[in-house]
Amino acid sequence: MRNKKRIKNRNNKQKLYYSGKKKRHTLKSQVVVCKSSQKILCTSFCNGKRHDFKLFKESKVRWVCGIYAITDSGYLGIKRLQKTSIVPKRRSKKTPLTKDEKQSNRCISAQRVLNENVIGKIKRFKILSDKYRNRRKRFGLRFNLIAAIYNLELEERQSKLL
C-alpha cells in the first residue's frame, strides 16, 4: 500500500470545528463580565468542540484573591486553579442534591443572571444567535468589536443617568 499524501483542503479544516453534540460546525466564545459595572472585561474564542474549562485554561484568564468568579457547571475543575471561584454543585445518579445544596445552587444562579443578561444583549447583534456565515478567522475580531460597542453604549447610558 502506498502512503497517500494528506491534502490540506477545506474539509480537513472543517473537521476541527465540527461539534458532534450540535451536529454542525460551531464556534465557542467565552465572556468575562464585571458584576458591578456590567462591562465585558475579556473574551476568548475557539472551535465548538472544545470544553468550556479547557477554553478557560488556554485563555489564561486569572484574577486576584479578593475577586470571586461565579461560573456554571461547565467549569468544574476551576477550583484547583482559582480558589476564589464559585461553582454550583452537580447531582449524580446515586446521590441527589439535598435541599441545602439546591438552595445554594439557586443563590449562585441568581448571581449569574447578570452574566446571562449581558450575553443576551450581545445576542441582539445576531453574531451568537444566528449561523456565522463569514470567515472564521475574523469571528474574534467582530465579536470584540461588538463587545466594545456594548461597553460604549453602557457608558453612555450610565453617563445620562448621572
Report strand %: 5-15%
Q: How are helices and strands ordered from N to C? A: HEEEEHEHEHH
Number of helices: 5
Major sheet characteristics: 2 strands, antiparallel
Unreliable residue stretches: none
Question: What's the structural domain tally?
Answer: 1
Question: Roughly how much helix do the residues carry, as a percent range?
Answer: 40-55%
Shape: globular
Distance between the termini: 75 Å
Q: What would the average pLDDT be, to the nearest integer?
A: 85
Which structural category fits the helices and strands? Answer: alpha+beta
Give me the side-by-side strand order of the main sheet: 1-2
Q: Evaluate the radius of gyration.
A: 19 Å
| Number of E-type strands | 6
What does this molecule look like?
With 162 residues, the chain is α+β, with helices and mostly antiparallel strands. It has one domain (23-142). Helices cover 40% and strands 14% of the residues. The chain is built from 5 helices and 6 strands; from the N terminus they run αββββαβαβαα. The strands form 3 sheets. It has a two-stranded antiparallel sheet with strand order 1-2. It has a two-stranded antiparallel sheet with strand order 3-4. It has a two-stranded parallel ribbon with strand order 5-6. The longest helix has 25 residues, at 99-123. The termini are far apart.
